[in-house]
Amino acid sequence: MKMILRWFPDGDDSVTLNQIKQIPGVSGVATCLSKIPVGDVWPLDKLQALKKEINDAGLDLEVIESVNIHENIKKGFSDRDKYIKNYIETLSNLSKIGIKCLCYNFMPVIDWARSDLSYPLPDGSTAMAYNHDEVKNMNPEIMANVLSSESKGYSLPGWEPERLNDMAADIEYYKNMTHDEYWGNMKYFLDHVIPYAEKYDIKMAIHPDDPPWTLYGLPKVITSAQNIRTFLSLNSSSYNGITLCTGSLGSSYDNDIPAIIREFSGQGRIHFTHIRNLKHLSDQDFYESAHLSECGDLDMYEIVKAFHDTGFDSYVRPDHGRMIWGEEARPGYGLYDRAIGANYLLGLWEAIDKNQRGIE
Ligand code: DNO
């Protein structure tokens, strides 16, 4: 397991590379070029400069999170081939800077949804929270405004401004699309892109839908073990894999996260992992708690053990942290709580590893 942290370039992060370098056990970052419009090719010179900046700070650029997919690919429009061609060219450029893992998602219109980015917890910290009724009653444009007003001036990945213009029309469009058609559009993308992922030796790791249930009538597909099986069977290459996000899948009580890890990590199809905990307030309402098992509903020991037992040796990052100690940062992506989370997870791994090898 290789522990990394998500970091945003171009001055769009309160956390510096030097700070990340000082977190014990963290050797690299997951990052992106956030200013490239969705659908365009990511230029090689910008990628090389990004890699140099990270390497100069003594860290590795390990994972790209994310190269977003143009909505017309998800909708199956006739100009999708042009965007797929650009995607493949981006893969080629990523391979030239040595990237081995690409996290992306295939969620229609909106990436993740929350009702509150600074939900107050009794200890004085704040966390991101999801209240199903509130989210249902907001339309996504209102949610975009609420989220951006709470984002402390940092961009919110997945809520890029260019998405917002077409949101209402896009949501209308998807109302007439069946899940089968959506799976078909996904398969078309995979069948065209995965052969190049193989050629360029980049593992593709799709992120689950967050939350893993239908919202605004949009087709949600990466939501459960069964749907992950379907997804992986669309293209059987080992380069077609997943980002296992404990929090996204774990928002649904129906998902047994350690069992999901054992199944898909055992098959070598988990290429990247986001680990966070969450505390349910009801079936579909939750806040993102501290990583420690006793703070949330997910058992981190069982989660890390499932990875260890299946020989997982790919990238892990602590996912969203709370805001603690007065930190002012992009919601979910401050330094302190994620650093605590990273070291807690590394501690669990060390204990499990030594225990299994019989080391006292
Ligand atoms: C939210 C993130 C997601 C994730 C994308 C991957 O904080 O986990 O935005 O990066 O879904 O494409």
| Number of E-type strands | 12
Q: Bin the helical content.
A: 40-55%
According to CATH, the homologous superfamily is Divalent-metal-dependent TIM barrel enzymes
Shape: globular
Task: List low-confidence stretches.
Answer: none
Read across the widest sheet, the strand sequence of neighbours is 1-2-3-4-7-8-9-12
Mean pLDDT: 95
Q: What's the helix-strand series?
A: EHEHEHHEEEHHHHHEHEHHEEEHEH
Described by strand count, sense and barrel closure, the largest sheet is: 8 strands, parallel, barrel
Search tags:
16% strand, 360 residues, binds D-mannose, alpha/beta, single chain
Give structural notes.
By secondary structure, the protein is an alpha/beta fold. It has one domain (2-356): TIM Barrel. The protein contains 14 helices and twelve strands. The strands form two sheets. An eight-stranded parallel β-barrel has the order 1-2-3-4-7-8-9-12, surrounded by four helices. A four-stranded antiparallel beta sheet has the order 5-6-11-10. The longest helix is centred in the middle third of the chain and has 22 residues, at 179-200. It is globular and about 55 Å long. It starts with a strand and ends with a helix. The mean pLDDT is 95. It binds D-mannose. D-mannose binds at residues 65-66, 103-105, 111-112, 157-158, 207, 274, 332.
Short description:
It is built from 14 helices and twelve strands.
